Amino acid sequence: MPVTTSSERGPDLHTPLSGVPLTHGQLPRYAAQFTLLAAIAAGIALTLAGWNPAASAIIAGAGYVVVIYAWSRTVEGPRKARDRLVTAVVTGAFLLALLPLVSVIVTVVGNGIARFDVEFFTYSMRGVVGEGGGAYHAIMGTLVVTGLAALISVPIGILTAIYLVEYGRGRLAKAITFFVDVMTGIPSIVAGLFAYALFALVFGPGVRMGIMGAIALSVLMIPVVVRSAEEMLKLVPNELREAAYALAVPKWRTIVKVVLPTALAGIATGVTLAIARVIGETAPLLITLGITSSVNLNPVDGRMATLPVYAYYQYVTPGVPPEPALERAWTAALTLIIIVMALNLIARLISRLFAPKTRG
Amino acid sequence: MRKGSTVLPSTERTRSRRAPQRPGDRVFSGLSTGAGVLILVVLAGVAAFLVAEAWPALIAPADEVPGPDGIVLYIWPLLFGTLLAAFLALLIAAPLAVAIALFITHYAPRRIAQALGYIIDLLAAIPSIIYGLWGIQVLAPLTVEPAGWLEENLGFIPLFAGPASTTGRTMLVAALVLAVMILPIVSAVVREAFRQTPRLHEEASLALGATRWEMIRMAVLPFGRSSIIGASMLGLGRALGETMAVAIVLSVSGGVTFNLISSGNPGTIAANIALEFPESTGIAVNTLIASGLVLFAVTLLVNMAARAVINRRREFSGAN
């Protein structure tokens, strides 16, 4: 082998520089994947050998982390090894967070599917003891109360967002922004107590009405609407406003005819998500509406049933025998989860199909 | 040019005047300002009406309010339970939330990162009543065996003193359910901050030969630190006010104890209101509203502090 100088063959990376090597080893390209496969195989083997599946999953996961760290540390050195360790831990944390989501959905569908029938959606609980009965009254109640809450919150929320983006200057705007943020953190039960306290002062103690629930839900819904509408209005390019002003269009017409239509899809998405957030609220409705077994669609006349409260009472006071009521509770939960997921999906679809027209 | 001399005075005049205010403008700006002010009024109203309805319980003699020794000793164990459950939940959720945010912003493949974010957000969409049902049906039985093990082997720590509950309706399970519930909100705020890490900082540290973890430790985490604090406090606020899940899961005896795995737990304010309110009348209702007022004050303070921390970072983020 002829002796060549390093300038002809590129820099010499193999001679240590005062004892420190310039290169170090690397794991094979698919080392992580193979180790993972081995860990999964070991986990399956443990399960087949009669171990608890959860325990074997934990052992397999920990085994993967230990093996990849030790292997990488011997071959690649401590820095790279720690990098691989963190990658494994972070990915593991994400998968761990998915577990409850999957478990909740599997549990609710598994327990709720038994009574997911026509009777459940067409019958109320009037005069029902034991088997049968449904949640028609509760579903209608939920629609009425949530609809009223949306009717109150959407105009207030959007107008506030318009104020913050188009008009708001100075300390009032700052205060509103800050307190809207703070308002998103009000516990739902406190919103319920507020509605109760408000009406108890007027109608006396022990009052229960649909409109009280709607007001409690509005307190929770308004800040969500304001936040999302504000974000969307801020996305509207200023050139559009300036073009309208240049044509001598008054400010309010600019807002109504130019700004709002441009941001409409985003605002609709935000409103849908806000509805999805409050439709499953239980606590404020529990203390403002109570529960009833008959259909009541009048929001200013006494107790109303709603789906979350219905699920709660069916579960905690099932009666004898308990099975039919527990099944109704799970089916109500399933219905609720379907409604919420559908609303989320609709919101995503709206924002995808009618994306903000920021260009052209 | 031709009309210059005649137009000039009028433009001078319009320039000195502000843009013309049409009636429509006045109505519209009045409406939107009114809506904004209304929100402030509502928030003040929440406090005012709660105080008004809580007042009879606050001035009532100690033997009329429920509980053995007056309103303070009635609310204190509940407040203790609320804080214990919430802090425990935060202790579990915060590291997980940061890891999830890191995974979505820096580890997951770009194309599916957004979809993964949606999936985590779905956790937030599930109503709390369903978490409660899930907690008592699935999670509680799962913890019975490990809780027994904890009592046997770590029983010398007061947290695991036992006797271990046989139903699993313990403070530990309540905190776990709360942790799952606050995970999405915390990770969403942290994710937003991580995503705004200056690209140049990240690239500079990678160019200096840092591994991905070293880059995250040196560029991403310092940038997101105050967001992590703020988001954790937001999550704490959520956990403090969470009602139904705790009401369903927790088995309450009323004492003040740090024991996490027994069946005798302090209740929480929110869950106690939900459980007691439907059957209460008279002064008992006022007492519950007074406890709600305490909860409102605590969450308000936590949320205001959280927002202040997050907003401060927002002001600096442009310059960094």
Walkthrough of the structure:
Chain A: The chain crosses the membrane at residues 30-48, 54-72, 84-114, 134-164, 176-203, 209-226, 258-279, 329-350. Chain A: This is Phosphate transport system permease protein PstA. The complex is a heterodimer of chains A (360) and B (320). With 360 residues, chain A is mainly alpha-helical. Chain A has helices at residues 6-9, 31-48, 53-76, 78-112, 118-122, 136-167, 170-183, 188-203, 210-235, 238-246, 251-279, 283-288, 307-316, 323-353. The longest helix of chain A is centred in the first third of the chain and has 35 residues, at 78-112. Chain B has one domain: MetI-like (MetI-like fold, Orthogonal Bundle), CATH 1.10.3720. Helix content of chain B is 76%, strand content 0%. Chains A and B meet through α4, α6, α7, α8 and α9 of A and α2, α3, α4, α5 and α6 of B.
Radius of gyration of chain A: 30 Å
Query: What class, by secondary structure content of chain B?
Result: mainly alpha
Distance separating the two termini of chain B: 51 Å
Distance between the termini of chain A: 68 Å
Family (chain B): Belongs to the binding-protein-dependent transport system permease family. CysTW subfamily.
GO cellular component, one term (chain B): plasma membrane
InterPro entries (chain B): MetI-like (IPR000515), MetI-like_sf (IPR035906), Phosphate_PstC (IPR011864), Phosphate_Transport_Permease (IPR051124)
GO biological process, one term (chain B): phosphate ion transport
Which keywords apply here?
heterodimer; A: 360 residues; mainly alpha; MetI-like fold; 2 domains; B: 320 residues; flat; disordered N terminus
List the SSEs and their pairings.
The complex is a heterodimer of chains A (360) and B (320).
Chain A: H1 6-9, H2 31-48, H3 53-76, H4 78-112, H5 118-122, H6 136-167, H7 170-183, H8 188-203, H9 210-235, H10 238-246, H11 251-279, H12 283-288, H13 307-316, H14 323-353
Chain B: H1 4-16, H2 23-59, H3 70-107, H4 110-125, H5 128-154, H6 171-195, H7 199-207, H8 212-241, H9 244-249, H10 269-276, H11 283-317
